[in-house]
Every structure is written in C-alpha cells, then in structure tokens.
User: Fold this.
Amino acid sequence: MDMKNINLEDKEREFQAKIDADIRIEPNDWMPDSYRKTLIRQISQHAHSEIVGMLPEGNWVTRAPNLRRKAVLLAKVQDEAGHGLYLYSAVETLGADREDTIDDLHSGKAKYSSIFNYPTLTWADMGTVGWLVDGAAIMNQVPLCRCSYGPYARAMVRVCKEESFHQRQGFEIIAGLANGTPEQKELAQDSLNRWWWPALMMFGPSDENSKHTAQSIKWKIKRETNDELRQKFVDVTVPQAEMIGLVIPDKDLKWNEEKQGYDYGEINWDEFMNVIQGNGPCNKQRVDARRNAKENGMWVREAATAYAEKRQAKKAS
Amino acid sequence: MSTKEWPLWEVFIRSKQGLSHKHVGSLRAPDAEMAISNARDVYTRRSEGVSIWVVESKLVSASDPKEANEFFEPSDTKIYRHPTFYDVPDGISHM
Assistant:
C-alpha cells in the first residue's frame, strides 16, 4: 500500500472518530468525498423540495376564503422560499455551485420530495398539507438539527422553529372544516383520504430498501431510520384525526398494545417509485413552473446586475 | 443573456441592542445594498434582528482547520490563566 492510501485511511478514521464523539464537521474541515457528495445530494434535494413546495400552496393564494387566511398562506409560502435559501446557502459551503444544483432540478437529474407531485384540488388541501405534509417534514427535520454537518444542522434549527407555525395553521384549517357543515366535513375527509398515504411515503422507502440509510446513520447525517420516523408520525397523527372526527383511510390501522404504537397497512411502493421516477400527477407541471421561473425571471436578475454595475461605476467616477 | 452569477455574501445579525452581530448564513445578491434588503427578508422574518452586516464571502480570511491544534495549542497549555488554577483558603469570600 502506498503512502497516499495509508494517509487517506488515517484521515477517514480520524473523521469517523470526530463523528462518533459528536464533534460537528464544519465547511473547511477535511471530509471524505462520499460524505461531501451525500450531503450535496441530500441538502440540494431538500432545498428543491422547499422551493417546489411553494407551488401547490401558491395555487390557493388568490382563492383563500378570507383576508386572514390569505395573509397566513402568503407568509407560509414566503417561509418555504426562505427555507430553500437557507439550504442553498448550506449546500454552497460544501463547494457546490448553487446554479448547477438548480439546473439539476430543472433537467430532472435531482429529485425533490415526492409529495409535491400531488395536486391541491380543494381549499381543504391547504389544511391537510400544513397538518400532514409539514407535520411529516417536522418529524424528518427535528433529528436533522443534530446532523453532523454544522451548516445543515443550523439551517434545520431555523427551519424547525418556523415549521411549527405551518403545521398549526394547517391543523386550524382542517379542524375548522371538520367541525363545520356536513359539506365542509366531507371536504376535510376527502382531503385526508387523498393525502394520508402520500404523506406516509414522504419518509422514503422502508429501511430494508433504503440504500443510503445505513451509511447516513453511521455518519450521523441521519439520526433515525425512515421506518422509525414514519412510525412516530403515525402514532402522533392518528389521535389528532380522531380528535376532530376524521377517519384515517387505512382499514388495517390498529393500536398495538405490545409495541405501544399503531400497526398500519401496506404502503403502495409502486406508486411511490412511479412518482419518484417522474410519473406522478404533477411532476411535469412542477418542473416546468420552476424552469419557467428561472428563464422568464432572468431579466430581473440581469436588471439588478446592471443597476449594481451602474451604481458602482458612478461611485468610482 | 448574462448568466453572470451574483457574488456570495455572509450575513451577520444583531438580534438586539447590546449584543454583537452573529453569523447566520449567506445569500447571493448583486451588491451590498441588495444583499442587506434580501438578508432582511431571508433572515429576519420574525423580528430576529435590529441590525444587519453583510460582507462578501471572498473577503473573509479564516484560520486553517488543518492547523487548528497547533494554532490554538499555546492557550491550551496555560491553565494558570484561569481563576480555578489558584487555591483560595476556606473562609475567604468575595474572590
């Protein structure tokens, strides 16, 4: 073995020892290429999810039922943009190029959360998205606040503080409908029926089929497995649904006294894979909207650059 | 079409009078003024700040993490700089 390889093995051992001792990794620290690549992939896809996540909700901004709901929805959508920006900022600390990662989204090379490929058909979906989708996101993101990579963990702390408003505003909408007229309650139930299973899929493939989980846990990028997080989500959400008189659309759902958690039915993984591969109801629409925003918004960037240059020149003269 | 990238800016926020500015993240903007107004929207949507600094990331000089041990070693070996190094007899107070 040559010196270079011995050196690399030492570095990797030292790196893992830091991780094991819960010492955070910071941008200029040495890290294995595969750790860097994994983080670039995960953080950029997380950022894309926040940005694409604005679209299903933006769909209802002009049709919110009153001014309060509209102001709240706008604030929430603006937060999602902010979350995307914290994350693009974190991904740049790894030496990735922000525009390249965005172009990867537009070319279909990079993925984003499968949930945003489902349509928001009714106002009740604004409730369900906040309640379930943001609820599942919080479940995923809370452990990421302790992620081994400092900038990602710090971004997650900010995001989690803001998400809890998102979940509560969603629950307020859905609880309002569930306690309303029979038609409103029907709207709420229909929405839950459509979003429940896609929300469970947000946690990703089951542990036995998750190719990245073991390594990510060893590196403390992830702290809990997909199935562990999914179980937690089911356990906290079922009683919330019961409280407002809605029925979880799963005939196999039942309390398991022994494990002190709910057993739930089989997830349709074919549907999940199909959506991930680009064949969900809204995949094309979502990516087209993002591409359109970049291409047709480019003049704004150019104008801002031209204005900055002009002012710079004026100052210099 | 100009695809020239906007420079990266590091953002520092004073959360209230009496505290120092603290690094919160970065963003891209064409100049300092736009960086400050973007920073307000990105990093202070919930009254997190009363003052913002931005500095172009390329202007930041940093110590080398590879040399951190050697670089900070001089202070590690001077435990007599800490008050706990000294024995104070029982019964002595206000010290």
About this structure: The longest helix of chain A spans residues 283-316. The first strand of chain A starts at residue 254 and ends at 256. Chain A has a mean pLDDT of 95. The interface with chain B takes residues 26, 28-30, 75, 78-79, 82, 85-86, 89-90, 92-93, 98-99, 151, 154-155, 161-162, 298, 301-302, 304-305, 307-309, 311-312 of chain A (CB under 8 Å).
